[in-house]
DNA sequence: CTAATATGAATGAAGG
DNA sequence: CCTTCATTCATATTAG
């Protein structure tokens, strides 16, 4: 079912179904998520290049892809946060003890745990992380995680 | 076959009522289609909320659902249009009058007349609309239709 | 039961 | 940053 979502850099290979848009691999997603959850939600140009270099080890990716990823990530995070915040607000609207049974506001129900409030990427070492990174390039990922400590320094959200 | 507003039980194995995704009821579909055919193909945020409120009377629905619905509607309309436009173009390619009978684009063996160029939702009052809205909440629907006049048209550029 | 289709939802990319 | 478009994934429904 899952057909190599990897974006090949050489479209000349006729055997491949020419993937027009980049599909980040699980390992790449893990890395990006980790960085994002580390507080780097808006990496500067320099950092973006670094991140791209890290991701490249797991598949072809460009600076633009990383840039877009973080941009979309921020947007989606904010939107999701607003959404469930609004829902909560409505749920708690007025503490007048009224028995309302209508879900008149939002019924967004998704099967995933979503909510990046706490994913567990910060710690990993266990969970599904291992599942993703088995066999191929586990060593690379470890090194990258160690390197994460050096970067940092980027508080989320910046005046701008 | 009456479907309880999206909260129907599992078809066979009574496991978890894992409601994966929202299923708009016939009434809701009618409303959405009507709005879409009224010219509002891309409702702004405010309008989306209003639409959601209207739909809520017929079943649980969130702003996101409405947002997704219109987005998908636009996309698919355009895609469909492009698709059959391409087919037409192929049929008329070169005025040499060649008898080509190849369906290079798609099989398309469905009984529908496809092409939502004219569905009839704009007028309703007749057709299958009545069939949908009988018995339950016809009154609500009428009021909603009257309210439709208040909304301004959000004409969007057809060309990208 | 399996295959195909319809459609809600997620996401990469781009424009303003 | 925000909105929008195009593509893709996942699932519900229907046809065989």
Automatic annotation (TrEMBL), chains A, B:
GO terms for cellular component: nucleus. GO terms for molecular function: DNA binding. One of its GO terms (biological process) is system development. It comes from Cardamine amara subsp. amara. Belongs to the WUS homeobox family. Residues 15-80 form the Homeobox domain. It is found in: Nucleus. This is WUSCHEL-related homeobox 12. Residues 17-81 bind DNA. Residues 1-17 have a biased composition (Polar residues). The keyword Transcription applies. Keywords: Developmental protein, DNA-binding, Homeobox, Nucleus, Transcription, Transcription regulation. Residues 1-23 are annotated as: Disordered.
